[in-house]
Amino acid sequence: MLPIMTEEAGQLRICEYRRCGAPLPPAVGRGSRARFCQDGKTWGRRNLSCRDAEAVLSDAESLRESDTELDDTAVTALAGQVDRVLDPARGLVETLTTLRHQLEATTATALAERDAALTEADEHRRQRGLAEADAAQAREIAQEASAAATAAEKEKSAAIRERDAARGAQREALHEQQRAEGQLSAVRDELARVTERADAAVELAGERAGTIATVTAELAATRTALDEERGRGRAAESRAETMAGRLEAAESRADAATARLDTAHEELTKAATAHAAAQDQARMAAEGLRARFDERLAELQAAHEQTVRSMHETTTNLGAELRVTAGRADTAERALTRALAVLRETPGLELPEDVTVMLK
Fold first, then answer.
1. Which of 69, 114, 144, 181 has its CA 20 to 30 A from that of 245?
2. Which UniProt keywords apply (predicted)?
3. Exposure string (b/e) for 97-119, b if CB count within 10 Å is 16 or more?
4. In angstroms, rounded to a whole number, what is the distance separating the alpha carbons of residues 247 and 32?
């Protein structure tokens, strides 16, 4: 080995790897001094650092000095150690595969539950649409009933006006009849007076022949007027009877309009009751569907959160196992690298064929 130069001897220190010999930077402060290069330099196909390369050479020298033959047992033990290191990695791969299958199953279940929730929401919207259609139909029925009630009210008002007009006409006919009767009474009185005068005139026939003729003419005129008044009285009675018939017809129409109005009011009340019942039923159905949907959504959210927590826990555990396995694999790889370097650099060492193939 090359002598190590120290700073105490007034010389610079160099790398202790015998094939390097590069100068080392001066140490600063107290503490242990670096003995190998720290600049990332590597050696060989395995990219060994100066420290690892020196360790491999030291192991090879110790093997040569001890004159110990390397048999198949050491190689087999090394292979077993490598297998033991790789076994956790295989288990990790299997665990990751199982986790992937579980995640796929959980995702499929969550998607199916989401589709079911969407289907339930569609059914809820359909039920709400049907309820709104029933409510709209009930509103139309109520509007029709209200229109019928308004028309019946108008007919009733018209019938009442006709009845009032008929009653007014009847009163006028009665007044005309009373006037005609009064005139008839006056004519009768006048006829009685004329008759009395005629009787008196008959007694005085000789004296008042001209007066008799005049009275006779007056009597004829009075009778004619009496007949005319009687005709007008009969016409007034006929008009009164006609107006009475019209009054009865108007009262009948008013009663019919009142009955239709009552019927329309009843239909309007029934329609309003049915509309309120339909609204209550639709509201209750919507509230029930909304409650079930919210409950289902809460269950899905809880299941999703539980799945996420489980995934995080599993991922954390697998990460820890992966780090441990990676550390073991790195350790095994470094040991294998040193062993392979020793095997390659050991002169005159005969190895089995499979080991030789592995070293190439």
1. 181
2. Coiled coil
3. eeeeeeeeebeeeeeebeeebee
4. 134
**CB of 75 within 8 A of CB of 354?**
no
Task: Report which residue type is found at 100.
Answer: R
Q: What confidence tens digit (pLDDT) does each residue in 244-278 have?
A: 787 788 778 878 878 887 887 888 788 788 878 87
| Domain annotation covers residue 19 | no
The interaxial angle of helices 209-345 and 50-66, nearest 10 deg, is 40
What is the Cα–Cα distance from 307 to 113, expressed in whole angstroms?
A: 14
Instruction: Say how far apart CA 64 and CA 347 lie, in whole Å.
Output: 9
Q: What is the DSSP letter of 32?
A: P
pTM, 2 dp: 0.32
Cα(125)–Cα(289) distance, integer angstroms: 9
- Report the alpha-carbon distance of residue 240 to residue 173 in Å, rounded: 5
Domain that holds residue 156: 69-359
Assess if residue 30 is contained within a domain: no
58 is a domain residue = no
The count of domains in the chain is: 1
